[in-house]
Amino acid sequence: MVDTVGDRQAANAAGTRRTGIRRTGPQRPAGQSALGAFMRRHRLAPYLLLLPSLAAIGLALIWPTLQIALYSLQNFGEPQIVGTEPAKWVGFSNFTTTLADPEFWLSLRTTVMFAAVLVTLTMITGTLVGLLLNRLGKRMAAFVSGAALLAWATPAVSASVIFVWFFSPDGGIVNWALEKLPHWLGGGQQWAQFNWATNGALPAYTIATILVVWQSFPFIAVTVLAGLKSIPTELYESARVDGAGAWQGFRKITYPMLKPIFLILGLLSIIWDFNVFTQTYIITGALGNRDEYNLALYSYSQAFQLPPAVGLGSALALILTVILLIITIGYVRANIKQGAVA
Q1: What is the DSSP letter of 28?
Q2: Does a structural domain hold residue 335?
């Protein structure tokens, strides 16, 4: 078969048409390609993935905070709640009224002392239990940590009611045990009808301290245990070879390695212990004993006790938020200077 010039030209033309057909397929719209290029250029994809979480945070946290800020500048009470009168703007008078109230400063002092004791005891107890769990075998550590987490998972209301019964003057096991103790250990008949909830702030907050520490230390212990598992065992072996004891090993190896974890746990404990409400509300007998108020009880009484004053309660909530921010910033700055945070 003779291959002529005309046949080759026809074949080349057919190949060109087939190539053109192959290249002309469904194309991506120009708008989508431009949007994708814009997102890649400005690296916006991670921020788009965060949008649902940011929207949820804004709905659950930022918007209520803005509402509280608005209420704090208003005289918002029962007439405004039921809708019979409009809200009245009073500026910063709610803040000045709160700061001029001696009961606020008494509640603040109680809160600071209570939180300082709680944070210290919770961190020490949780750290010691975490160190103990790290030395136990797998089965025993799982059993002990599971039993401890039951205390952490117990609802605050249920735990508070149980502890109130423990310290009850009518058949409470603590009063019974203290009554049976010899006099040289502080026991005696004076404990038979001793009411822990109504004999001042110290007895009531003794119960609250034991309860909150009992419920809080398991979280600290499990977190410290997780941090201990990340420390190489070779460091402790080298320290033992050099003659270091248990305390020196903790001070030179464990604590420096776990400083960031202790920082986070300390911050969380401060925030949680400044806002203890359920336990103190039940132990102190609701709002009857005003000399036993902490800031949470004081804020609740101002906002919801008849007649309700939502504006005063909102102002107090913002004041408490500012106090926590100041404590948090100071705590973080101190740890940064000590090298706990890079």
Answers
A1: P
A2: no
